[in-house]
Amino acid sequence: MFAASGGGVLVSAANPLPVTGTISSTPSSGTLTDRSGTITAGGTAQTLAASNSSRKYLLIENQDSAESLWINFTTAAVTSQPSIELQPGATFVMDSAFVSTELVSVIAATTGHKFAAKEG
């Protein structure tokens, strides 16, 4: 429940704000850049995507069935905090609410570890 000071209107479930008109949402569209690949040197962080001030979408999927993939922004990924762990088969998505424009780094223990990534 919210109340406005200075003689305002009390807004609650019993006294909602009136809404007129139509509310609609138009999804954005664009082209995806494929950033998929493999870990080139196990145990060593590599850049998945450079910083990109126009990035509006980011998807990363760990395609390994047995090993975690770790991601980080701005600085090199490590296999612990503060990097983000993607367990086998997990997907990480950034879209309309917030998308980091920073460099994206990944790391996994094994050379050849597969990941899928799309940037838009």
Structure description:
The structure is a single chain. With 120 residues, the protein is mainly beta. The chain has a single domain (31-120), classed as Sandwich (Jelly Rolls), CATH 2.60.120. Helices cover 0% and strands 32% of the residues. The strands form three sheets. Strands 3, 4, 6, 9 and 11 form a five-stranded antiparallel β-sheet that branches. A four-stranded antiparallel β-sheet has the order 5-10-7-8, with no helix packed on it. The model is unreliable at 1-5 (pLDDT under 50).
Would you summarize the structure shown here?
With 120 residues, the chain is mostly beta strands.
CATH architecture identity: Sandwich
User: What is the highest CATH level, the class?
Assistant: Mainly Beta
Total tally of structural domains: 1
**First CA to last CA: what distance?**
39 Å
The global form is elongated
Secondary structure tally, helices: 0
Which labels suit this protein?
120 residues, mainly beta, Jelly Rolls, five-stranded antiparallel β-sheet, four-stranded antiparallel β-sheet, 0% helix, disordered N terminus
List the helices and strands and how they pair.
Layout lengths: L1 E2 L6 E2 L21 E2 L2 E2 L7 E4 L8 E5 L6 E5 L10 E3 L4 E4 L9 E4 L6 E6 L1
Antiparallel strand pairs: 1-2, 3-11, 4-11, 5-10, 6-9, 6-11, 7-8, 7-10
